[in-house]
Amino acid sequence: MDSMDTLTRVALIFVPFLFALCFHEYAHAWMAKKLGDNTADDLGRLTLNPLSHADPLGTFFFPIMAIVSGGGFFFGWAKPVPVNPRNLKHPLKDMFWVALAGPGSNILLGVIGALALGTMAVVLNAHPMLQSLSSPLAFFIKINLFLAVFNLIPIHPLDGGKILARFLPYNANRWLEQNSGTLSMIFLGLILMSAFSGEGLFFLTWPTEALYNLLMILAGVWAQILDIIV
């Protein structure tokens, strides 16, 4: 592969991924601060600076290696934002909103991306630049939706586990937290088996594609509205 092609792939894939990841962690920190916990802010995590959220392996090494190698298994993570539930007025309820803020922020970015896509379709119309700009934007939407779907899986330590905790009995939550390490290893094994079996991460890609199709409908409706207005 040509070095320029490699750099282009890294720019078009890794940069949107990095922004989506950092925005996700920023949203956790922002919501925690709004609800009374300054832990993340005090530790410099209330920022979009990638260096504040980056995990050397999960944020840089594995994603970039996947892009450079051209492999189909693209995966990554950032350092989780620290939250002290004792600083929250209503720990169980507030942790629900702190956890939901992460995947919610990625869905928000996906919606913004869809609206931008619809706007470009009207503004650029049949201009040659439309295709070259819409492809990276479509990937940006998909990577945000994938991060949202992945983090909504109801297992600790993912956001979905903390969201589910709002609705479970105390003993059930306690069991999930005590066994979070074992459950995480089982889940990681499921991901690895799915990724390398040729089936792909079907339990993540199916809902991601469903959400993406809904946002493409939104983009089309938005384009029609703009077309009428313009």
List the helices and strands and how they pair.
Blueprint: H1 3-34, H2 39-42, H3 50-53, H4 56-69, H5 91-123, H6 129-151, H7 159-165, H8 170-178, H9 180-196, H10 202-229
Structural notes for this entry:
The chain is mainly alpha-helical and 230 residues long. The chain has one domain (3-229). The protein is 74% helix and 0% strand. It contains ten helices and no strands. The longest helix has 33 residues, at 91-123. It is globular and about 60 Å long.
Q: Pick out the low-confidence regions.
A: none
The percent range for strand residues is: under 5%
Number of helices: 10
Helical amount: over 70%
Give, in order, the helices and strands: HHHHHHHHHH
Structural class: mainly alpha
Shape: globular
Q: End-to-end span in angstroms?
A: 44 Å
Keywords, please?
single chain, 230 residues, mainly alpha, 10 helices
Structure summarized in a few sentences:
With 230 residues, the protein is mainly α. It has ten helices and no strands.
